[in-house]
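Go through this pair.

…
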Amino acid sequence: MEFETNFFQTLVNQLECAVMFREIPSGLILFANDAVLSVFGHPKEKFLENSKFIEEICHSDFYQGFLKFHHDNLEGNIRNPFEYQIIDSDNNIRWIRQQTKKYHDNQGKFVGIQISCENITTVKYRETQLAYLDKASTEGIILSKDGFFLSLNRQAVRMLGYEKSSELIGKNYIDFISPEFNKTVHQHMVKEIDGRYEAILKKKDGTTFPVKIEGRRVEFNGEMIRAASVIDITREREYESNFVDIVNTVKSIILKTDPDGYITFINKFGEEFFGFDPDELIGQHMLDTIVPHIDSTGTNLKPMIADLSTNPEKYTENINENQKKNGERVWIAWSNKPITDHEGNQVGLLSVGIDLTDRKLAEEKLKTNEANLKLAEAIANFGYWEYFIQTHKLKTSEEFNQIFDLNTEAEITPELLFSIYHPDDKERITRLIQKMINGENVPDITEYRIIDSRGKVKTLWSMTKLYKDQNNNPVKIFGTIQDISNQKKLTDQLKKQRDFNELIIEASPAFFVAINKEGKTIMMNRKMRETLKYKLEEVVGKNYLQNFIPKEEQQYVSKIFENMINHPNPTLSENYIISKDGKKYLTEWHGQPIFNDENELDFFVGYGIDITQRRKYEILLEKEQNDLKKSLQEKDVLLKEIHHRVKNNLQIISSLIRLQKPKISDDKTLQINIDFQNRVKTMSLIHETLYRSDDLGKLDFGNYIQNLVSNLFRTYQKSPELIHLEIDIDDFELNLDQAISCGLIINEIISNALKYAFPEKSRGTIFIKAKKRTDNKIELIAGDTGIGIPKEINLEKTETLGLQLIIGLAKQLGGTIKVYRNFGTKFHIIFMEE
């Protein structure tokens, strides 16, 4: 017995099923193999130590049945097999199938039972699944082995056109496969390749239908079989056949690409949207066709497109920049879904796009507007706040906190704000808020002051609005504030300046009036009111033309106003104004129109002075000037007559001298006669020139010298071929006294040159130059290139009349004289012009 036991233990420890030996009649388990642990999930020691351990781990639902089965075994009434559930050491449920066999000793006595158990949890689970699928699945379920049907659920039976599964059990799959799919199905059904594939099945009546089949190897009742789920895809195929027609009616972009990003399909809307023909897109890569390589922000989109193809789950929804054929950039929201084959491998990507360009531009504009608003709030010192009445909570904007100089880390409460209000404004603000909550009318704009944490007083403008719920109960106050401290300071300064200007205008000794575009007086200063004998309340709002301008001048003044509008520069004019008692005042006005920011006329202003008395003086002065002018004209006539008579008298003297020439026998006396005659002619020529001039006080010096020298050349009968004359005189005038002196000097110099400088028909030049310098001095140079004045003659003590005249007249002019006797004779005289 001991040997047999050892042999039995060695043998059964090699088995995968759990084997135990229970002694009869004690019921003790004397042996358990090593497989007990893998089958029951408990070590075999538990069973050897406790003969009732199986009863203890039996599931409650099977406990009573197991006790009866165990009792029957002990009595020798063996029932095989018996299936029940136990709880393993991890508290999981296991299905156990138990086989029991009687064991007899050599004498044939019943001494024990052999228990063989296997874990059938997986099989039970599959059976349960199959049962459920048989009842509930919309898919056909087929179990087969070596290509022969073992089991079919009801859906699979109906697909093949049969009534009962028994009609199909044992048949070969080949009888139900369209020939072109035999190879594909054979690989999966016979060669046991797991995976998903498509095929065409034949029904009992011979008709065919397309299916998707997914096959897997499974263990069933201890052996490996094929389980296949079959889906009728007839409708799917119909859908695919109509896919193009359907998507071409959709107003969205529908795009299919292969795993590498090349376009395999795009609907008609997409073609028209991007501006491409179909052959320009199909087979082309998305990048650089409908997707720019670099977007408008400078981002390289190539990595994103590559990632989209390999990791589409990251881009279920994405928005990116695209481009049309003409280069226009557009924003599109894409919904992406990978396309997989029957084995689950990605074979493409289906994308549906909606144009978001307008929305994107609107969002960008909104962002810009929000940024501009924030900037405007900062520039304008503008903030807002919300007070929730029921909760007594306060919400403030960032700019509000900056204006109030608040610490945003601490809670901002109404009490905190109240403590910042200026003491003189606290009661007024509290009263206004309470009135608003009570529904009373309050001003739209409130001005008040605060004192910030640095002690700075700020002036604020606030606008508020009360919000109520559907029951008309106040729930919230919304308010805006603006820091107007700088504007307030400027306004106060402008007010002071305006008051000062009004004071100056009011106190001005001149007239000032302002008239609006309707012609009504809006301001008249005190000087003008007192002159016209009106009070302030009697002029404001009155029509200016009708009340302050005489009737005979109203049309004239009206045209002045019209002219100022058309030519908005300061206008100078004169017109009469009339007082309350009818007295008229001639006034000189400086008027100007004032325009507003829209370049529309706002009002006229006029600044005037009473010129009534001045005009009387001007009339009197004009009469006196006319009388003086008449007197001067009479004196000019008389003076011309005097010059004329002096010239005539000098000509008579010259004629008398000339009449004496025939009676003179010696040359010396004759020369004296000629010289004296020339001197008289020189003075006579001056009076003749003044007589013919418009200016009796000034003489054109150049013209006078030209006539004088021409007369001398005629007198001395010198040929211009022998003696060259050079005259260079600036354009200037001399008075009578200086002209006579200069004329006599030139007469003596030129006469002396004509007589003595060029003996025996020799050639030479006589020159006269006169320049007016910048210091108002006259520089006179005259002479010749002849033989010159002998050096033995002392010019300062000369007894020659001509030289004495030249030196004497130069001194009479108050000038200086120098005489140069090298290479002829040159007199250099400088004197101040009078």
Remarks:
- Residues 612-660 form the longest helix (49 residues).
- The first strand starts at residue 18 and ends at 23.
- The radius of gyration is 67 Å.
